[in-house]
Amino acid sequence: MLLSLTGVALLLLIRPWKRKKVLLLAQHVHIGGTASYFRGLCTYFYERGYEIQLLLRKREFTPEVASFLESMPCRWQIVDHELDHLEYWYDRKHVLRFYFLYDFLQQSLYVGKILLRSRASLLFVSNAYPGDLFPVFLLPVHTRFVIHSMPWGRLDRGNRYILEKMIRFFPQRVRLATVSAFAKNRILHHWQVEGLNNQLSFLYNYSPLANISPSYPERNHKDITVLTAGSVIGTKNPALWIRVAKALINCYPGVQFVWAGEGTLLNVCRNEAQNCPNIKLPGKVADMAGLYSRADIYFQPSKWESQGLAVLEAMSFGLPCVVTSNGGTAEMVVDGITGMLAEPDDEQAFISHLEQLINDAATLQEMGKQAFHRFQTEFSRNRWYARIDEFIEK
Predict the structure, then answer these.
(1) pTM of the predicted model, to two decimals?
(2) Which of 20, 49, 284, 333 has the smallest CB count inside 10 Å?
């Protein structure tokens, strides 16, 4: 196996490539913010003139993903289990170290062979699980690695060793990015990898769902709709969301709360809200742009967010955002200017912020305009493309 890996490495180093080609290794492409990011990334590479080869996991290759890829001039390969071995052995490495090492090399060799066939000069990884897929750093190709989630513990010894050695000996070849300054600081704190601070940047995401109109979408704010988007899961704080919604609807019967998205707690929340017709949980919504256009306020009380892509989408549609202060959302929203921040467990603060916007149409309108302007100047597609350009070429 070592000879095979060496052969792949030599061929990748000496074979000349005539056209820009990228091998995009993406995780979690079927749901949530990483799905939006994946679609935006494919569009970016296409518009930048790259020939695109995709490596996708079988369990994530949904009809929606297939439909999107059919509209893109790219090739893709479906992986059944080849990139899952490493995850399988993580919990067993203290007993089966030999098999862990074997699988580590096997994963590198597998991706290396695909790189060789695709003749890609760039390997771009969209990583949803911090610490996964690090064996690709062994490959002698320019690698750009974007980490979407935040770690909650130390990096395992094998991956830490690889990162430290690659940073020490090949600093120009390996670059990592995450999606906010908050996420970067969390990675540095938990992983404790020597030299990582200089190799890890943060690169705010962009969603192709965002409104690209240069003009602010006017609203009359007659009947207030408070919108939330994203998976209905524990980290999104749905229990607090339900309590806040009920408290405000009791005071303002004309206000509606809508949460668009699927998730493990969707049915639980539907049961909690079944006697309150002004609370709507429709599940997955195809026309999210329509929902953003009809809403008046965006509300996201998550326990934490690495960035909060739906917040950017809401800003692009001119919605003032009342969101958690814990995480990357605090970097998107300027408190008191484009929206309001609150600690994720401060139920009364969320109620107070939303009540202020419900009662003050002028403030609601002004914050919406400021949110729209901030998106246009800081988080637009052109700004994101420029950041990706710099990340790849740096």
Answers:
(1) 0.86
(2) 49
CA 208 to each of CA 39, 50, 310: distance values in angstroms, whole numbers, following the listed order: 7, 19, 11
Q: CB neighbours of 110 closer than 8 A, spacing ≥ 6? A: 82, 83
DSSP H helical ranges for the chain: 2-14, 32-47, 63-70, 85-90, 97-118, 157-169, 181-191, 196-199, 238-251, 266-272, 288-294, 309-316, 329-332, 347-359, 361-378, 381-393
Judging by beta carbons within 10 Å of its beta carbon (0-12, 13-18, 19+), is residue 61 exposed, middle or buried? middle
Confidence of residue 91 (pLDDT cuts 50, 70, 90): very low
Residue 135 per-residue DSSP state: G
% of the chain at pLDDT higher than 70:
87
Pair 52, 74: CB distance under 8 Å: yes
- Beta strand 122-127 with 74-79 is unpaired
Taking the CA atoms of residue 196, residue 197, residue 198 and residue 199 in that order, the dihedral angle to the nearest 10 degrees is 50
Alpha carbon distance 333, 312 (integer Å): 9
Local structure of 324: helix, strand or coil: strand
The Cα–Cα gap between 239 and 391 comes to 39
What are the chain's domains? 2-206+381-393 (3.40.50.2000), 225-378 (3.40.50.2000)
Calpha distance 337→90 (Å, rounded): 45
The pLDDT tens digits of the residues spanning 262-298 come to 999 999 999 999 999 999 999 999 899 999 999 999 9
